[in-house]
Amino acid sequence: MQKAAFLLYAVAVYVVFLATFLYLVGFVGGFAGLPLTVDQGPRSPLAVALTFDIALIALFGAQHSIMARQGFKRKWTRIVPPAIERSTYVLFASLALITLFLCWRPIGAVLWEISSPAGKALIWGLFAAGWVIVLTSTFLIDHFELFGLRQAWQHARGSRPAAPRLRQPLFYKVVRHPLYSGFFLAFWATPRMTVGHLVLALGLSVYMLIAITYEERDLVNLFGADYEGYRGRTGKLFPRIHKR
């Protein structure tokens, strides 16, 4: 009964994540028809809007960084069973994003806008490419493990998870963090950059650069010299032209 409940929980969390991820694409892209986007929503004075938006980005970043650390996980799994630890992390991450959607305060001053049809098409193509890179990268490193489904499924079957391996499929052969590269592209590729969009893109970019530092520290602790060698051969977010 417990195994079935854990699996059902993991599936439900995955559905919440998927809906949140799809809304994030529309939120960042400012898609028409959505009630809340980076440029559409309740307005506030500039100082209030900046305070709200920076606090929301900080909340999202803190949740991601703290809950992803190995020290936190060791303590957390005394409360949350390991089979659903990852799903619970994904749930909290989704809730942090939903909070950002609901409480975001747009700042509409336009910094730049591309008016030519060819220019807009190019930028939207880069925006779409960013999200494709993000999604593809999750499947390259095991999408279902990343979002907690595999752990619950293995628990339901009574099987043990395989030992972690350092793999470099496709994008990972030339870039250590293609998932973050995709997010950078998606957040910054917009034909109409408002102050609010800039705050979102800049805030999340700073968070990702900080997160990469901690993530690489964990990977060095896990894989040792193998990861050090991999880091020496490949770029962090963009392909390295000259190898060390």
Task: Please outline what is shown here.
This protein has 244 residues and is mainly α. Helix content is 67%, strand content 3%. Strands 1-2 form a two-stranded antiparallel sheet.
Distinctive features:
mainly alpha, two-stranded antiparallel sheet, single chain, 2 strands, 244 residues
Describe the structure.
The structure is a single chain. This protein is mostly helical and 244 residues long. Helices cover 67% and strands 3% of the residues. The protein contains ten helices and two strands. The chain has a two-stranded antiparallel ribbon with strand order 1-2. Helix 8 packs antiparallel against helix 9. The protein is globular. The termini are far apart.
- Gyration radius, rounded: 19 Å
Write down how many β-strands occur, each being a DSSP E stretch of 2 or more residues. Answer: 2
Helical proportion, percent range:
55-70%
> Roughly how many Å apart are the termini?
54 Å
Strand content: under 5%
List the topology elements.
Elements: H1 2-29, H2 46-68, H3 70-76, H4 85-103, E1 110-113, H5 117-140, H6 143-146, H7 149-157, H8 178-188, E2 192-194, H9 195-223, H10 225-233
Antiparallel strand pairs: 1-2
Helix pairs in contact: 1-4, 1-7, 2-4, 2-9, 5-8, 8-9, 9-10
